[in-house]
């Protein structure tokens, strides 16, 4: 896919204004014909210079203005359409120089900000001033007719630049001798593509706060080992990522020497500090090499306003109906590397300070906006800090329920730069669920299980038990925080899968379920086995929403440590499951601290067709048969190879019997359908 860089403008529009007779039309004609025109019309026609003949490879339109042929309204329209305005004065006429500040600069400001021009009512003006900053159109001051004098007007112009920050640059030229003609239009183009004002404050001779903030983030991302220094290896990576070329050792030594000379603490242990990094970019700008700093900023996703541009944060991702989003292997490896970089003490968990430092390149931690994600994952039981396992669980959950936010934060953390690719490489879009059903096997590694049951059925405890090692700690606990999702990993036939339990909130028994509450990879319908009125709700939910669907369903009876009560329903739970060809009810209790339920749910999601659930059941029965019929006969610790051979033959026979049983069940299932 290749590296991604925030795009700059795809075209540049330059407007030339100035007093009559300053030579602005001659400048345009001299540029086009490369010779001085003997006859000059009142106004030159608009011309467009193709991209392949401009230094920045951007098509450039040049527009002339004539007060003789055009009205003030036409001037206002042209100023607003232009990306940069060149104010031309004659170096041999002081009046035209004075009118830069007395007329042209105030005029351009006013036309860009109508409230400053006396237009609109006072109320609209006050509201506008309060809500937005005035627009600053980039300006280039152009002194023409330099061939007529033997002195420079630059001192006077530089004084003007100090009072008007929108002035990007100034140049003296001659339309007659063609001196600095190309440079003039290059500066105008550069003022649009690589503007100074967002980066640098002329008055303070300092980087703007927005530029500093952006460069600090870039420094942190490039500081791979997290020692607050950029060593030679990190600087070389930075150079390659931004400019696609290595940094020669001699050049690197020269750069360090310049930093050391100007900023004593800019170099430490032969590595560049943050102060040195900021000074270097300040120096680039002071020497007129804005394009260097802009190339870095755009490589890291910044637009002309020094904001992360939306196409960089949110590349378009197509998700077909029935598909879901997961972290790819590259995405997981990147997040593991980020975690380990900021786990400074190597204890396998992020302390609050480490967590804060990790997200210092982001607006905030992504789960600071969502209590659900923050509380939905396993944590370190002793400290309450997020472990690597919990870290990956959080990102897995966020990628499933809000993949756009995942892509945004991967960009903030520097995935695009470190991986030399867009965040799309960190996302895996699964195949459609209908294909999984057709193939009778899911290719996903993250499964959604909706846990549905009446109030008091214990479904919240069932969900929270998934997050802790010892479920006894949850007994008698009142769950005050509303956590919708609980995520953890389980093993399905030796492969790690993530299972997300979504606690479906049921306010009233007669409330209908919404489609997003029904659709999932596996449904877990929960009733209280000690409450005779609990199962009816579960039965009605199954018949109404799942009996005709292809979503696998597990019915779970909670609080099995208490006396099981006969249910006030047409059928008892086991009879109901038998009628609808479901697995027998799974009895669950926090007191037993057994977690095979979660593995069963994940396995049913991985093999979503009806027969697969029976495979699990009969596989379990075959293991019991094998243990009772053979291990007891031969003994677990026997070292007689003949006896182990007999055991192996017995297992093979039992397995063959199992396949025959399964084949029969499959045929029966097909017949009933």
TrEMBL record:
CDD domains: Miro1, Miro2
One CC-aspect GO term: mitochondrial outer membrane
Location(s), subcellular: Mitochondrion outer membrane
Molecular-function GO terms, alphabetical: calcium ion binding; GTP binding; GTPase activity
Membrane topology, as annotated: Single-pass type IV membrane protein
Gene3D superfamilies referenced in this protein's UniProt entry, alphabetically: EF-hand (1.10.238.10), P-loop containing nucleotide triphosphate hydrolases (3.40.50.300)
Sequence intervals crossing the membrane: 643-665
Domain (Miro): residue spans on this chain: 9-194, 444-607
InterPro entries, alphabetized: EF-hand-dom_pair, EF_Hand_1_Ca_BS, EF_hand_assoc_1, EF_hand_assoc_2, EF_hand_dom, Miro, Miro-EF-hand_domain, MIRO_dom
Superkingdom to which the source organism belongs: Eukaryota
Domain EF-hand: 330-365
Predominant location: mitochondrion
EC number per UniProt: 3.6.5.-
Claim: Transcription is one of the keywords in the record: no
Role played: Mitochondrial GTPase involved in mitochondrial trafficking. Probably involved in control of anterograde transport of mitochondria and their subcellular distribution.
PANTHER family linked: EF-HAND CALCIUM-BINDING DOMAIN-CONTAINING PROTEIN 7 (PTHR46819:SF1)
Protein name: Mitochondrial Rho GTPase
Organism: Drosophila mauritiana
Phylogenetic placement of the source organism: Eukaryota, Metazoa, Ecdysozoa, Arthropoda, Hexapoda
């Amino acid at each position: 896919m290749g590296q991604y860089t925030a795009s700059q403008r795809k075209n540049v529009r330059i407007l030339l204004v100035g007093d009559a007779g300053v030579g602005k039309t001659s400048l345009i004609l001299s540029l086009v014909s490369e010779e001085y025109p003997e006859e000059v019309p009142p106004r030159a026609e608009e011309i467009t210079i193709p991209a392949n003949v401009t230094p920045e490879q951007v098509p450039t339109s040049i527009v002339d203005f004539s007060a003789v042929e055009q009205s003030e309204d036409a001037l206002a329209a042209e100023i607003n359409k232009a990306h940069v305005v060149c104010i031309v004065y004659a170096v041999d006429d002081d009046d035209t120089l004075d009118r830069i500040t007395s007329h042209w600069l105030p005029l351009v400001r006013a036309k860009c900000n109508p409230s400053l021009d006396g237009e609109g009512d006072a109320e609209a003006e006050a509201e506008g001033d309060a809500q937005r900053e005035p627009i600053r159109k980039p300006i280039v001051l152009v002194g023409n007719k330099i061939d007529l004098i033997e002195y420079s007007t630059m001192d006077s112009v530089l004084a003007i630049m100090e009072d008007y920050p929108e002035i990007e640059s100034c140049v003296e030229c001659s339309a007659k001798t063609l001196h600095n003609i190309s440079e003039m239009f290059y500066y105008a183009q550069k003022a649009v593509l690589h503007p100074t004002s967002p980066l640098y404050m002329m008055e303070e001779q300092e980087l703007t706060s927005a530029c500093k903030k952006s460069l600090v983030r870039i420094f942190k991302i490039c500081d791979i080992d997290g020692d607050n220094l950029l060593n030679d290896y990190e600087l070389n990576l930075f150079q390659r990522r931004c400019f696609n070329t290595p940094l020669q050792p001699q050049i690197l030594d020269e750069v360090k020497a310049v930093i050391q000379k100007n900023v004593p603490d800019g170099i430490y242990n032969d590595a560049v500090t943050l102060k040195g990094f900021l000074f270097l970019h300040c120096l680039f700008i002071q020497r007129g090499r804005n394009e260097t700093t802009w190339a870095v900023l755009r490589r890291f996703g910044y637009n002309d306003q020094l904001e992360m541009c939306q196409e960089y944060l949110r590349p378009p991702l197509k998700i077909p109906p029935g598909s879901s989003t997961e972290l790819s292997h590259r995405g997981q490896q990147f997040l593991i590397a980020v975690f380990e970089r900021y786990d400074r003490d190597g204890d396998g968990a992020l302390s609050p300070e480490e967590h804060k430092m990790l997200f210092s390149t982001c607006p905030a931690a992504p789960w600071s906006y969502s209590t659900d994600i923050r509380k939905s994952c396993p944590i370190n039981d002793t400290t309450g800090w997020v472990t690597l396992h919990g870290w990956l669980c959080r990102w897995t959950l966020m990628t499933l329920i809000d993949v756009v936010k995942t892509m945004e934060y991967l960009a903030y953390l520097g995935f695009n730069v470190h991986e030399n690719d867009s965040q799309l490489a960190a996302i895996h879009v699964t195949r459609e669920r209908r294909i999984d059903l057709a193939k009778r096997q899911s290719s996903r590694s993250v499964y959604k299980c909706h846990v549905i049951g009446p109030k008091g059925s214990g479904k919240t405890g069932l969900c929270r038990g998934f997050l802790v090692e010892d479920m006894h700690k949850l007994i008698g606990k009142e769950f005050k925080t509303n956590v919708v999702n609980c995520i953890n990993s389980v093993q399905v036939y030796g492969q790690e899968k993530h299972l997300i339990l979504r606690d479906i909130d049921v306010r009233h028994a007669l409330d209908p379920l919404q489609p997003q509450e029904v659709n999932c990879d596996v449904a877990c319908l929960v009733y209280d086995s000690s409450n005779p009125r609990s199962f009816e709700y579960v039965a009605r939910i199954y018949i109404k929403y799942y009996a005709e669907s292809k979503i696998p369903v597990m019915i779970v009876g909670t609080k099995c440590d208490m006396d099981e009560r006969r249910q006030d329903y047409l059928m008892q739970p086991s009879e109901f499951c038998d009628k609808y060809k479901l697995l027998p009810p799974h009895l669950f209790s926090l007191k037993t601290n057994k977690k095979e339920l979660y593995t069963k749910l994940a396995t049913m999601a991985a093999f979503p067709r009806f027969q697969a659930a029976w495979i699990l059941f009969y596989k379990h029965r075959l293991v019991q048969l094998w243990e009772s019929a053979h291990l007891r006969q031969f003994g677990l610790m026997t070292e007689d190879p003949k006896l182990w051979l007999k055991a192996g033959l017995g297992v093979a026979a039992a397995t063959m019997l199992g396949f025959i049983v399964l084949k029969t069940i499959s045929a029966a299932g097909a017949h009933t359908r």
